[in-house]
């Protein structure tokens, strides 16, 4: 009778019969690198890493996995923060990085068709080179991949104007958990011919199948965007600023971060935007062609200052300064990564943000008296990031356990406010125990039934979202 290792070797030899042997990797470095995401909470332990180069190979792999009951974990840039791309129970990681070509550009329809492994920034650069703009944007743009963005319905810093990834997907090719290839919506703007299965795969976290190609809308670039950073004394002031600036200017971003979060960025060499320290800050971006909106923005600044809603502020005078101001917000995640933060990515209706923040702030101060808690997020769309930093000397397992215990209280508060446990990071492994705070048991039952249709043998990213 063959040993487990002998059985695994035979299974992998079978995969090497239809995927180049060099692209079926079992070395420790590859398994570590491809078997994890940015959570770093789980120890990777994949059986192997497979790097297919075309759709036919993926279909063969899925059918082979069904035949031999092998679990598959689709993998993009692995920048996720929920453990959705983690392979820690002997799964086979299916990396899309070799499928990284832009296949078709339609200048008339302002759309592009690309393979799932195209890096987000590469698509943005392609659009810019053709006088257009792909507006789904976030700090991990240089390593995240389009397939992963779609699988998590990525949001980012421009949602207040441009929406989520879902809003830009006009077509998808997917290989289902059965091994079937579906060509969904075919890039059409209008298509009223029954269920739109495309939207089931947006945000599915690889649990229904593997996204292999996407057709995405493009739009015109922002016209000379200007950036303001404003110091705000309290949360009510943050929402007052949002209301006033949104009504008078067409905003492309409205971001929020705390003084505690800012201090970590400043340690990395970024300059404080102005002398005053305030508990909170907002970053506002708006189109400013020919600087025609500068006077309007300054008038709004004066009005808000008179109301006591802000203490100080700065407006960019050049593209270089605008980029430096953006670093105050975008560099937060990187600057705190060494502290192994426990992240909560929550969403609520915009009007309920102040009440939610106040209640959660009180809860965290009571439950985490010795932990540093940082707030930041895309407050213009009701998405807040709560980051608890691990104290030096506390082991990771104990830290995660303490944070998880308090998450139950946090999500109970969120549930009362009608919010979601995940705004843009997904459910994956980290939020799976708390799904019932956002979806009731009846709805979860329908989710399970949908998975059964597309993945009857449960080989696609098992254990993610729900068991």
Describe it:
- The structure is a single chain.
- The protein is an alpha+beta fold and 467 residues long.
- The chain has 4 domains: 4-98, Uridine Diphospho-n-acetylenolpyruvylglucosamine Reductase, domain 2 (2-Layer Sandwich); 102-217, Uridine Diphospho-n-acetylenolpyruvylglucosamine Reductase, domain 3; 225-333, Alpha-Beta Plaits; 340-425, Alpha-Beta Plaits (2-Layer Sandwich).
- It is 34% helix and 20% strand.
- It has 15 helices and 16 strands.
- A 7-stranded antiparallel β-sheet has the order 13-10-12-11-15-16-14, sandwiched between helices.
- A hairpin with a 4-residue loop joins strand 5 and strand 6 (111-115).
- Helix 8 runs antiparallel to helix 10.
- It is globular.
- The two termini are 31 Å apart.
- The model has no long low-confidence stretch (mean pLDDT 94).
């Amino acid at each position: 009778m063959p040993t487990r290792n002998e059985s695994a070797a035979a299974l992998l030899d079978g995969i090497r019969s239809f995927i180049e042997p060099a692209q079926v990797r079992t070395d420790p470095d590859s398994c570590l690198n491809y078997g994890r995401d940015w959570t770093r909470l789980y120890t990777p332990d994949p059986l192997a890493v497979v790097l297919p180069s075309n759709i036919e190979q993926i279909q063969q792999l899925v059918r082979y996995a069904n035949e031999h009951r092998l679990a598959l974990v689709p993998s993009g840039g692995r920048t996720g923060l929920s453990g959705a791309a983690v392979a820690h129970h002997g799964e086979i990681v299916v990396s899309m990085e070799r499928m990284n070509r832009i296949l078709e550009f339609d200048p008339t329809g302002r759309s592009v068709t690309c393979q799932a492994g195209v890096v987000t920034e590469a698509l943005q650069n392609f659009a810019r080179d053709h006088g257009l703009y792909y507006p789904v944007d976030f700090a991990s743009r240089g390593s995240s991949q389009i397939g992963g963005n779609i699988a998590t319905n990525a949001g980012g810093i421009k949602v207040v104007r441009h929406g989520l990834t879902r809003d830009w997907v006009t077509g998808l090719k997917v290989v289902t958990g059965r091994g079937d290839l579906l060509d969904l919506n075919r890039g059409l703007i209008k298509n009223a011919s029954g269920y739109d299965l495309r939207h089931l795969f947006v945000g599915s976290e690889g649990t229904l199948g593997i996204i292999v190609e996407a057709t995405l809308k493009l739009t015109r670039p922002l016209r000379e965007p200007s950036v303001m950073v404003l110091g705000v004394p309290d949360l009510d002031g943050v929402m007052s600023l949002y209301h006033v600036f949104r009504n008078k200017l067409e905003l492309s971003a409205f971001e929020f971060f705390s003084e505690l979060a800012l201090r970590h960025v400043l340690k990395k060499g970024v300059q404080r935007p102005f002398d005053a320290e305030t508990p909170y800050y907002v970053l506002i971006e708006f189109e400013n062609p020919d600087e025609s909106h500068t006077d309007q923005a300054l008038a709004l600044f004066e009005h808000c200052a008179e109301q006591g809603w802000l203490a100080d502020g700065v407006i960019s005078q050049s593209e270089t300064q605008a980029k430096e101001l953006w670093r105050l917000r975008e560099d937060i995640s990187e600057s705190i990564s060494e502290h192994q933060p426990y992240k909560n990515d929550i969403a609520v209706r915009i009007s309920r943000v102040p009440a939610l923040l106040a209640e959660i702030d009180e809860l965290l101060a009571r439950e985490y008296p010795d932990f540093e808690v940082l707030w930041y997020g895309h407050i213009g769309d009701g998405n807040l990031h709560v980051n608890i930093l691990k104290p030096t000397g506390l082991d990771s397992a104990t830290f995660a356990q303490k944070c998880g215990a308090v998450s139950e209280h946090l999500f109970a508060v969120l549930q009362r406010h009608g919010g979601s446990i995940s705004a843009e990071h997904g459910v994956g492994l980290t939020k799976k125990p708390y799904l019932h705070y956002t979806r009731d048991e009846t709805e979860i039952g329908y989710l399970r039934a949908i998975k059964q249709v597309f993945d009857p043998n449960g080989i696609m990213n098992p254990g993610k979202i729900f068991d």
